[in-house]
Amino acid sequence: MANEPDRINNFYVKGGIWIDSESGPFLGAGRVELLKRIQEHGSITKAAKSMGMAYRQAWHLIESMNVKVANPLVKTSSGGKGGGGATLTAEAVKMIAQFEKLEAAFIAFMKTQSEDLSI
Predict the structure, then answer these.
(1) Which residues neighbour 69 within 8 Å (Cβ) at sequence distance 6 or greater?
(2) Are the CB atoms for 17 and 102 separated by under 8 Å?
(3) Of 46, 57, 88, 117, which has the highest C-beta tally within 10 A?
């Protein structure tokens, strides 16, 4: 119609990265964020709470990652006088770095592909 404004859509490529194993999902953005928050807070409980996640769900995610690798990504210590806690292993730090490198490359790929769209 004559009085309607032209509608222009800006299309772009969108996606996400997951590292899977034969036995299911291993690492994605949410799990990486959980690991980083465990590193920051030194606690699964505090990490989960900071993400609005139940402790049980966080523990399940950690266990599902730990059983898929030779060495666990998260080590826990029991409570007591000084309190318990959780720490990342060197393997976890390496996995985070690898995931972030892969994700950066994927973001660059999506940006390039978005610029090349002719829709």
Answers:
(1) 91
(2) yes
(3) 88
Strands (E) in the chain, as ranges, are: 18-21, 24-28, 74-77, 85-88
Please write the tens of the pLDDT for every residue from 5-29.
Answer: 565 678 899 999 999 999 999 999 9
Task: Give 5's DSSP letter.
Answer: P
pTM: 0.84
Predicted confidence (pLDDT) per residue in 37-83, tens digit: 999 999 999 999 999 999 999 999 999 999 999 999 999 888 666 66
